[in-house]
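Appendix B. Chain record.
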Amino acid sequence: MNNAKRFFILSFLSYLFYLQLFQAQEPPNLNEKEIKPSFTYYKNGNYKSKTIYTNDKTQGLFYQYFENGNFKSISKINNKKIKSPFKLFHQNGKTKKEIILNDTLNKKVIHLYHNNGNLKSKLPYLNNQLHGLAKYYNIKGQLFRETSYLNNYKSGVQKNYSKKGTILSELAYSMDTLTGISKLYKNGTVESKTLYLDGKIESVSENFYDNGQIKTSYSYENNQKHGLSKSYSKSGKLETKTSYINNKKEGVSNYYKKGIIYKINVYKKGILQSSAPVKNYKVDGILKKFYDTGVIKSKTPYLNGIKHGAAFLYSRKSQLKSKRLYKNGLLLKENQIKNNKLIGFVRYHNLDKINTKQLYLHQGITKYHKNGEIKSICFFKNGEIEKTYKEYYKNSKIKAKIPYQKSLIHGTAKYYYKNGSLKSKANYKQGLKHGETIVYYQNGNRKSSTQYKNSLKSGTQFKYYENSLIKSKSYYQNNLLHGLFLFYDKSSFINKKLYYQNGVLVKK
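Structure tokens predicted for this chain:
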């Protein structure tokens, strides 16, 4: 018997077998005596396809084969048309896919198989849409997932399993979107619980130890960490407490050992700003501050909440800028450093209040306001004040410019309002006022004009209204009023006269 005949007999017997197998799936109304098969072949003589019809050739079965002779697929013929296969095979002859139909209810179940013949999945359909509980299996035939579908969408709980059969996760879905409480498991116990709303994490997400004790708790808003988060030890002791804004750490983060705080970190937009060790709720140890790049900015030692010891300040390039020495909270001195060389030092008095700053490069003393802004700058030469002494307001605006010569004011000294406008100017000679001193309103108009000699008022003094009109006119001699003292109204009329002699009023 040749191979073709053997294939035909085997195919015919296979047909009878599958005909019985798929009667429950409403196969065509075939009768053995009415079968009239037709064939196509590969070059090697093996079947490529086989068609078996009823007499009227409107119904039947259509078989396809791999070149090695194994079945490839089986399809129905209905109304002379070949339908989609209801059974497919792997090339090794193992079933790949089969469809179990229930046309009355428009239902079907599709079974998919691995190469080794083990079941891969069971997929329930209603009206050609996934509907019901679908099951998925690994190559060993072990169940690894169960998913509930509604009209082709994941709806309900999807369960995932380990190779040992223990549950790994329960994911709540609605219309293919995570919605509701989803759980992750480890060794069969809940490892985390997360609430989803429309696919985004909302409210609180919690993680657990294997003993059921809560491990971490994160507050979420719109799928981002937002609000207070906490972590705990396996025994239930608080370990960390951190605030988040838009998924980034913000503000103070506390760290605990056995429920007692031991470290505080400060964050801004997720970037660490400072880190401080804590003992008995006070900073105790090295307080570290950082630039936004993460480079360390300073290291300051604390003892029981008070600065004590040597502190170091660094540039953004990690170069040492200065070294400060504290004792019991008092800043005693500061060495200023550039390119690893000492360029100056600062002396302090009282708590963190700068007294003097000695710069080697300029031989000057700089004083500071409490806010850290420069208060005054004074230069020396051979132990004497020289050049222009400058004084500043807390807002960095110039307050005074005073020329010195051998520690004596010499020249025109100028004083300013906080807005920068000139307040007064006075001429000095060897430390004494000499000549005209003028005081100004903030609008720039003169307020008064006084003559001095050896720092004593000597000569005519004028005072003015803010609109520059004369307010009064008087005369001084050896710093005493002497002579006629005239007062003017705002219309420039004299409204009062007084007469002084050596500072004594003798006539009204």
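Further analysis of this model is presented in Appendix C.
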